[in-house]
Specification:
ATP-binding; binds adenosine-5'-triphosphate; nucleotide-binding; alpha/beta; 4-stranded antiparallel β-sheet; ABC_transporter-like_CS
Length: about 325
């Protein structure tokens, strides 16, 4: 991810690590059931199969790296809600997903995470379709934070963050010192260390959001999928969170509504409208008054200072 004003890219990708998308669901009703049957599934890492003990990870074709969506489509209720979208983030970059409400951003992220199965096209990890990668192996690579986490279970913040370690642990094994370190580091990076013992249910919306990010960090992913992660955050925490993500040596796909934050923090943008990709490129290439009016129906001025474009909306 780019740090605002620097244009700097992160270094090499971190060691494998993390996270867990659930086994891709199979049509006709493609939502994959949440993680291994626990009431905490709502806050579980997307897809990590705690119960699917260690299937060997298959190797993909040489040279194919990272998470890619190739011409993916998703039909739900007789309607194509994602339609032929290709997304191939380069290693270490941050791709912003933009588009109006209902344009398909969350659905695309869920397809990338393997939470939903595409009804057309394919999502691959290092060149292998996700179903062949297996959900546990995918979970060690890909962490996803959805918009609304929930759980019926009484969990502390530390418990929630520790869920991110499940893909790395052998079934039924106790947490290791490395697990404890990863959890402590994730809590620290998200400013939640002093909330670690607090009940999840008593957290504010913004604190829950940060706890979910901490859970994803504890997964130590190489690919991070974030669905409007700044939603509940005050401006300081928005910037802190995006700075944090910018400093991670991971490839990130992030759905954002704030065009200026997208311009500040993303290397590339993909704009969706009615499920289709309508623009892709750098923020300076994509964020034009014409595009903003066509996609959002809003007039805007765009100025190009050093670093990134700045969008100013005009009254109708
Ligand atoms: N399970 C479902 N059944 C029927 N329609 C669905 C289902 N899931 C999503 N949709 C529809 O698909 C479209 C895309 O939804 P999605 O949540 O991907 O959009 P989005 O771009 O993330 O929206 P927002 O910015 O409001 O979060 C919406 O019109 C939504 O109502």
């Amino acid at each position: 991810m780019r740090r605002p004003g620097t244009g700097a890219r992160p270094g090499p990708v971190a060691p494998p690590g993390t996270g867990a998308p659930p086994e891709p669901a199979v049509p006709p009703e493609p939502a994959v059931p949440p993680g291994p049957g626990t009431a905490a599934a709502g806050v579980l890492p997307t897809g990590h199969g705690a119960a699917d003990g260690g299937e060997p990870a298959e190797e993909g074709p040489a040279g194919a790296t990272g998470l890619r969506a190739e011409r993916v489509g998703r039909r739900t209720g007789g309607r194509l809600i994602v339609d032929g979208v290709t997304l191939a983030p380069r290693t270490g970059e941050t791709v912003g997903l933009l588009g109006p409400n209902g344009s398909g951003k969350s659905t695309l992220l869920r397809l990338l995470a393997g939470v939903l199965a595409p009804s057309a096209g394919v999502v691959t990890l290092d060149g292998l379709p996700l179903p062949r990668v297996g959900r546990r192996a995918t979970a060690r690579r890909v962490a996803a934070v959805e918009q609304h986490a929930h759980t019926q279970t009484e969990l502390t913040v530390r418990d929630v963050v520790a869920l991110g370690r499940i893909p790395h642990r052998r079934p039924w094994s106790a947490a290791s010192a490395a697990d404890a370190r990863a959890v402590a580091l994730a809590l620290d990076r998200t400013g939640l260390t002093d909330r670690a013992g607090q009940s999840w249910h008593t957290l504010s919306g913004g604190e829950r959001q940060r706890a979910q990010i901490a859970r994803a960090l504890a997964q130590e992913p190489r690919e991070l999928l974030l669905d409007e992660p700044t939603n509940h955050l005050d401006i300081q925490h928005q910037l802190d969170l995006l700075d944090l993500v910018a400093g991670l040596p991971v490839t990130t796909v992030i759905a954002l509504h704030d065009l200026n934050l997208a311009a500040m923090y993303c290397d590339r943008l993909l704009v969706l409208r009615a499920g289709r990709a309508v623009a892709e490129g750098t923020p300076a290439e994509v964020l034009t008054p014409d595009l903003i009016e066509r996609v959002y129906g809003v007039r805007a001025e765009v100025t190009h200072g050093p670093g990134h474009p700045v969008v100013r909306f005009l009254r109708r």
